[in-house]
Design a protein that fits this description.
Blueprint lengths: L6 E6 L2 E6 L5 H14 L9 E6 L7 H12 L4 E7 L13 E8 L4 E4 L2 E8 L4 E4 L3 E7 L2 E4 L9 E6 L3 E4 L2 E2 L12 E8 L2 E6 L17
Parallel strand pairs: 2-3, 3-4, 5-7, 6-8, 7-9, 8-10, 9-11, 10-12
Antiparallel strand pairs: 1-2, 11-14, 12-13, 14-15
InterPro entries: CAP/MinC_C (IPR016098), MinC (IPR013033), MinC_C_sf (IPR036145), MinC_N_1 (IPR055219), Septum_form_inhib_MinC_C (IPR005526)
Pfam families: MinC_C, MinC_N_1
Family: Belongs to the MinC family.
Length: 218
């Protein structure tokens, strides 16, 4: 008798949807997910693929969500766009809009995004993020980021560990890293002033942007 599949993977226009069985024990679901990724590894390599995880009627605690994310992050080209539960209803937000993605941008990979991006993960040397809005990297930024790709010179680039190979905002390209005056990799942000790329501490971000308040009090 064939065992019941606890994880169903469906392809959609802009990525993959992982449907997790909401009646079985969560540890069994994670085991099935891990096995599927291992047995179909040839499909999870190469260009970046967006992933939406649907939990059905199941609610998960932070520890369970972390375990789920860690399994998916083992596949270098999977970026988690959302983890959805039927019981959750997300109100329509107004004002500053930002989308969260989780994963790792490895060497040779390009992540392109429309709007403001909060990226939970690392950008490795040789990796590239391009976004039409702001880019906030909660992790190590050692690759390249291009914010405001459609010409928005007011966009900013923020990173928890700020050691990029190159930065670009609109059409302004950063100076070489050794000219930034940053003595050690730390939490910084980049912005454009009078046509020049500037680097400053995240604590000073509020001086130029009142709407980007996720680091308020840092």
């Amino acid at each position: 008798m064939t065992a019941k599949s606890l994880v169903t993977i469906k392809g959609v226009k802009d990525g993959l949807v992982f449907l997790l069985d909401d009646k079985s024990d969560f540890s069994d679901v994670l085991h099935d997910l891990r096995a599927k990724l291992e047995h179909t590894s040839q499909f999870f390599s190469g260009p970046i693929v967006y992933v939406d995880v649907k939990l059905g009627a199941r609610s998960v605690v932070d520890e369970q969500k972390t375990a789920l994310v860690e399994i998916l992050r083992q596949r270098g080209n999977l970026l988690i766009r959302s983890i959805q539960c039927d019981a959750e209803s997300k109100p329509q937000e107004k004002g500053y809009q930002v989308q969260t993605l989780t994963g790792i941008v490895r060497s040779g990979q390009v992540l392109r995004h429309e709007g403001n991006l909060l990226f939970l993960g690392d950008v490795n040397p040789g990796g590239l993020i391009e976004s039409t809005g702001d880019v906030v990297v909660c992790g190590a930024l050692r690759g390249t980021v291009h914010a405001g790709v459609n010409g928005d010179a007011n966009a900013v680039i923020v990173a928890s560990l700020f050691a990029p190979t190159q930065l670009r905002i609109a059409d302004v390209i950063s100076r070489p890293p050794d000219e930034w005056g940053v003595k050690q990799a730390q939490m910084e942000y980049a912005y454009v002033r009078e046509g020049q790329m500037q680097i400053d501490k995240v604590a000073h971000l509020h001086r130029i942007r009142q709407d980007l308040n996720m680091f308020k009090g840092v």
